[in-house]
Amino acid sequence: MAKYREEQILNTRERILDAAIRVFHESGVTHASLTAVAELAGVTRDSLHSHFRDRVGLLKALTERMRLPGEDLCTAAGDDELKRDPLGTLRTRWIWLFDEIACNDEWQRLLEIIFLPCDPISEVCESTHRIKQGRTERLERMGELLEIALSVGQLPADLDLKLAQQMLHGGLFGVLEDWLLSPRFVDLGDLGEHYFDALLDMIRFSPELRLNRQQARTLH
After folding, report:
1. Cα gap 163→184, rounded to integer Å
2. Residue 151 needs a FRET pair 20 to 30 A away by CA distance; which of 7, 32, 87, 219 works?
3. What is the spatial distance between Cα 51 and Cα 31, in angstroms, rounded to a whole number?
4. What distance in Å separates the CA atoms of residue 67 and residue 79, rounded to the nearest whole number?
5. CA-CA distance, 25 to 182, in Å (whole number)?
């Protein structure tokens, strides 16, 4: 009996979260009606409040229910794979991420709420903090992989790793943000793959990404 009751509570909570993401996406977090969330979930307002105190609590629970982009970047790769082909590993994981977002409507709605907010920052502060923390972690992981790639000869020895790392990260997340803002006629997986390869070519061959780039400018 207790187990059945627990399953009912969890099921109700998930229905509320499913309803919340739809209402937040349509109305914005600030203007979303908790009554509308409750009605869409098929529960009473009191039942909703027994699970979540307010809109911010709902948004926090929604972001905790999914992994934000990049939080699992390269975590599935083994040590041997990383050492053998670090750039291939990085490429595979980014393309996987783009493909996952492209086919997951819930991820898309939530990312629009978080990345493209029309609400005061206080409403999305928890999620914004998590995004900033995730950005730092992604940059660190990408930096580590680029260092390995340099050590195994996949990148030029005089590459400015810091600059390359920031350019690759900014370029790839720029693709995601543009796609979220667009009508989405383009396949995000294909688009992300082309962008990654183009950015990688730039990192490999651009003299502006070399530690001695001032000397390269003088020669040109």
Report:
1. 30
2. 219
3. 20
4. 23
5. 16
